[in-house]
C-alpha cells in the first residue's frame, strides 16, 4: 500500500523511524477524521485509528493529538487510550500523564470571556446558520452551514465588534470558522512543550488547517511534517487527506515495528 506514497516521503518515514525517542503529534479534524458539519459527529477513520494504536503500542514512541477543539470535545471524539497525550484549544489545554492537570482563567480573563460571549452571541443570533461553540478561553464562530454572503458578514461584524470591546484579543482564521480567545498560544508552542515533555529526539507532525502552520514552522531539520489536503504550507510533504494520512502513519508504524530504530 505504501506505493501510493511518494518514494521521498517513504524514505523520510524510514529515516524518522530510526530515532530512539519519537513524538507523533497529530491534528484531528481534517487529518485523522474527515470534516463534518457537526463537530461532535467527527471520528477518525478506522485505518487512521488502527495506525495510531499501533504507534501507541511501540516503545519509546509517544502519540499526541494537537487540536483546536476544547479538550473535553477532543477526548469525546478521539476515543483513544489514556496514554495518548492531548492538546486542546490550540495549546491552551493540555492533558499529559497527570490526570490532575487543570486549566483555569484569572478574574480579568473571565470577565473578558463574558463580554466576548455577549458580543459574539448577538452575531450568531442575528445571522442564519451561524453558531457559537464554547471554548475554554473564548469561542469559535462557525459558518460552515451559512451562505457565502452570510459567512462573510458574520466574520466582518464579529471581528469588528469583538476587537472594539477587548484589547489584545487572539483571533484565528480556520476553515469556515473564526476563533476568538482571551489567552494566546499556538500549536507550535504546544509541539515544543510536548517535545520537551517527552524528551523526543524527533517529531512527526500532521495537520490540515491554517493553525497547523505554527506547528510546521516549529519543526526542526530532523523532524517531519505532512500537510493533509490543499492550501499553502511549510510542511515538507503533502497528501490528499485522512486516507493517505492513515497510510503514512501505518507506514511509519511498520518501519518502527521492524525494530530499525536505535536501541
Tell me the strand order in the biggest sheet: 4-3-2-1-9-10-11
**Hey, roughly how much beta strand do the residues contain?**
15-25%
- The second-level CATH architecture of the largest domain is 3-Layer(aba) Sandwich
What would you call the shape?
globular
Please provide the ordered H/E string of secondary-structure elements. HEHEHEEHEEHEEHEHEEH
Overall pLDDT metric: 92
Helix content: 25-40%
Count helical runs.
8
Number of domains: 2
Q: CATH superfamily of the largest domain, please?
A: HAD superfamily/HAD-like
Radius of gyration: 19 Å
Q: CATH class of the largest domain, anyone?
A: Alpha Beta
What does this structure look like?
Helices cover 38% and strands 20% of the residues. The strands form two sheets. The chain has a seven-stranded mixed sheet with strand order 4-3-2-1-9-10-11, sandwiched between helices. A four-stranded antiparallel sheet has the order 5-6-8-7, covered by helices on one side. It has helices spanning 7-16, 46-56, 71-78, 107-126, 148-165, 187-198, 213-218, 242-257, and strands at residues 22-26, 61-66, 85-88, 93-95, 131-135, 138-142, 170-174, 177-181, 202-207, 224-228, 237-239. The protein has two domains: 2-102 and 186-257, Rossmann fold (3-Layer(aba) Sandwich), CATH 3.40.50; 107-181, Alpha-Beta Plaits, CATH 3.30.70. The radius of gyration is 19 Å and the shape is globular. The protein is α/β, with parallel strands linked by helices and 263 residues long. It starts with 6 loop residues before the first helix and ends in a 6-residue tail after the last helix. Helix 1 (7-16) crosses helix 8 (242-257), helix 2 runs parallel beside helix 8 (242-257) and helix 4 runs antiparallel to helix 5. The mean pLDDT is 92.
